Amino acid sequence: MDLGVEQFRLEGRTALVTGAGRGVGAGIAQVLAAAGAAVVVNDLHVDRARAVADAIVDGGHAAVACPFDVTDTDAAKAALGAVGEGRAIDILVHNAGVPDGGGRPNRFVDMPRADWQLQIDLNLAAMMRMVQVVLPRLLENGWGRIIQISSGASSRGLPIGVAAYGAAKAGSEALVRHLGVECGPHGVTANALALGLMEGLGRADDPKVEKMIRQVPIGRLGRGTDVGAAIVWLCSEAGGLVNGQVIHLNGGTVFGR
Ligand SMILES: NC(=O)c1ccc[n+]([C@@H]2O[C@H](COP(=O)([O-])OP(=O)(O)OC[C@H]3O[C@@H](n4cnc5c(N)ncnc54)[C@H](O)[C@@H]3O)[C@@H](O)[C@H]2O)c1
User: Do the beta carbons of residue 116 and residue 108 sit within 8 Å?
Assistant: First the structure.
């Protein structure tokens, strides 16, 4: 085994990143592409997916836009088929998790069913759908990586109206644990990254953002590229020992500071 940085190169791998048209997903797509993977950039919004894919290609790396709604299995299969034969997915990063228009934070007692259903559909059911779309091929190939983007809200109660979101993310983490056991013997690992407070939640000089930063011992919020770097490790041969795990990427956050 190569013990240098070459072991982290992902040439020859194709990665599908859902919800990668902006935010965390865009950072993940950029880092995976820089590490050598061909990236299939998904988003609900065609323009967002294209902008991220074009920027990656302009930077000299490989990417293609692949817009579809991750809650629709048929649309996913059709869109993935349309981006070209031979582009078999080796790596699934299910990042889409913030519903467009709906699913607003709310005390659970006041949350309309349509809003909590949206959280379950996107954060749990869509993960299940996407895994079933790509997993047969990964098992057939005898190599694959499944990475779910989760949240610290899955493992602690928070007074910010995210009960349904947290419940859905917790479900996705349970799925990953079981997938790790079912798929590990076939060369396919499954893991979740539970994110903490990330950049993009407001301007740096916003008092709310300053308060958030005070809760993070490393003194800054997370970035999509931090998440991308962890994913490159998980996707490399060196990361193959990690399976069925939930890894917290949160700078050691201590809530209530
Ligand atoms: N930002 C944070 O502070 C934070 C913290 C913890 C966890 N997370 C998780 O990180 C992930 C990304 O969050 P973000 O803040 O970058 O979100 P974001 O809203 O900035 O970006 C999400 C992207 O997903 C797309 N999307 C939404 N629904 C979709 C669908 N049905 N099909 C395809 N694409 C869809 C959106 O169009 C958008 O471009 C989510 O899973 C979120 O739960 C974020």
Answer: yes
